[in-house]
Amino acid sequence: MTDSENKPVPVPPPSRTSLPSTTTKKEYDFFGVIQDYLDEAAAAANLELFVRTILSQPKNEIIVNFPVRMDNGEVKLFKGYRVQHNNLLGPFKGGIRFHPDVSLDDVKALAAMMTWKSALMRLPFGGGKGGIKFDPHSVTPHELQKITRRFTHALGMNIGPDYDIPAPDVGTNGQTMAWMMDTYSNMIGSYQKQSVKGVVTGKPVASGGTLGRAKATAQGMVFCLIEWAKEHNFQLEGKTMTVQGFGNVGSHTAVILARLGVSTIAVGDHTGYLFNPEGFNAHKLQDYVQHHGSIAGYPGGKPISREEFFATKADIFAPSALENQIKEAEARQLQCTVIVEGANGPTNPAGEKILEERGITILPDVLANSGGVTVSYYEWVQNKRSESWTEEEVDEKLERAMERAYREVSDYARNKKVSLRIAAYAIALSRIEAVYKEREIFP
Hints:
Elements: H1 30-44, H2 49-55, E1 60-69, E2 75-86, E3 92-99, H3 104-120, E4 127-133, H4 141-155, E5 164-168, H5 174-185, H6 216-231, E6 240-244, H7 248-259, E7 263-269, E8 272-275, H8 282-292, E9 302-304, H9 306-311, E10 316-319, H10 328-333, E11 338-340, H11 349-357, E12 361-363, H12 365-368, H13 371-385, H14 391-416, H15 420-439
Parallel strand pairs: 3-4, 3-5, 6-7, 6-10, 10-11, 11-12
Antiparallel strand pairs: 1-2, 2-4, 7-8, 8-9
Helix pairs in contact: 1-3, 1-15, 3-15, 4-5, 6-7, 6-13, 6-14, 7-8, 13-14, 14-15
């Protein structure tokens, strides 16, 4: 990436939304948790057994080991994953995660969630997820580019604009997608080079991305929260919020809600937690994190412990980091009215049960953070049509989509007397079931 004078400019660091987990991967079976939700929702929706059976495992599980020569001349071997859960409704769709804790089972869980999100939001997509097991902040920008390109090359024709479409996730960003797109375009025939921009979404706007994509997940969360607030006479102006994970999702959520009069009083990321009873300047903190990679050292807040963060009294909590952050202890400490899940799977089942008993509403991930895949769909459509929509057009379409999805989930939960999470799953499963019944099983 060069400026007009052909001088190198710094590559922006990937989103840093990760947090240290207090449990090891072996102690928490994320895929098992998603399977349990699937069982519960299947019962609520009276799902045909054969559909439940098909959806219980991904269609494809791809593992690649690929070498990269590092800047010091050493050759390192990296392990990458791409799980393709289901493509009944359309191409596999889902993010690429760069993180030291990436594992096959976690990617399987995340891929399944993408299937439910796409179905819930009525998108012509299936579900997929991928990642590389490494810390992207431990390598140079040059090494990061080589790792990304070698991974893309290793995946080969397992991705494609009409087959499997990656997007950013934890540890990746628009620059990552630009590298992936460029690598893929150079792997196919020259006559196709300009027609494959849709192989990834979440690209920089100049490289075929869409306006509004960077904030899409957060914008969708806010639209979902607004609908819940309308339904429960909850006035957003003057309310307070805490945010765990201040990368792309968490920071944009704070910025957007600040415009609606919501003050962020506590934030946290992998480096620790900060508190400011007067409220942080969300824009300034977002800029600081983009330049420094974390909230560490930000002068506008007082350092507090993880326990103090979860015990901070606020109206809204937006967990926007990794899965399994709200366990039993955290669920008892939280003093809020509503949780809007920006991360995937931030609340574990034991914690969720306690929150339900305490009357704290959870706007579940599969609904609340589905703005990201929805706007990815808008980007994909623009690439296919060679169009460029305004940010206002994108936001208007997203607002209507989130309003409709929230209303459907809320009505289902009330009528069936299930949680919003199970309602969202059940609606998604019913839509997939309808297609399986119509198309039946080949051969």
